[in-house]
Specification:
By secondary structure, this protein is an alpha+beta fold. Helices cover 36% and strands 19% of the residues. It has a three-stranded antiparallel beta sheet with strand order 1-2-3, with no helix packed on it. α2 packs across α3. The radius of gyration is 15 Å and the shape is flat. The N and C termini lie far apart (34 Å).
């Protein structure tokens, strides 16, 4: 792990390698609060990744996301289903 800079997403994580190329991710070095309502495009991006990597259905993804920080209290399962079904 390495922290570069002073912005929100400065923590770089080496997740492994594939074909000798490093697989990197980035995150915030500390947990940020308060959480805010995620945008519809962000929910759709996360849902797409869950569908592709985990093979989850629209309903499964919606139920998975419903209690996550930022989503809880801001969306219903029905709303998530509608948002996610558009892209899957």
């Amino acid at each position: 792990e390495q922290i570069i800079g002073t912005r929100a997403y400065d923590k770089i994580i080496l997740c492994g390698k594939q074909d000798e190329y490093p697989i990197l991710s980035f995150t915030a070095p500390t947990e940020k609060r308060p959480y805010v309502k995620p945008s519809i495009p962000y929910i759709q991006m996360v849902a797409s990744g869950l569908a592709k990597t985990r093979g989850l259905s629209v309903i499964e993804i919606s139920k998975y996301l419903i209690d996550k920080p930022g989503v809880v209290g801001n969306y219903t399962v029905s709303q998530l289903v509608g948002i996610i079904a558009i892209i899957l």
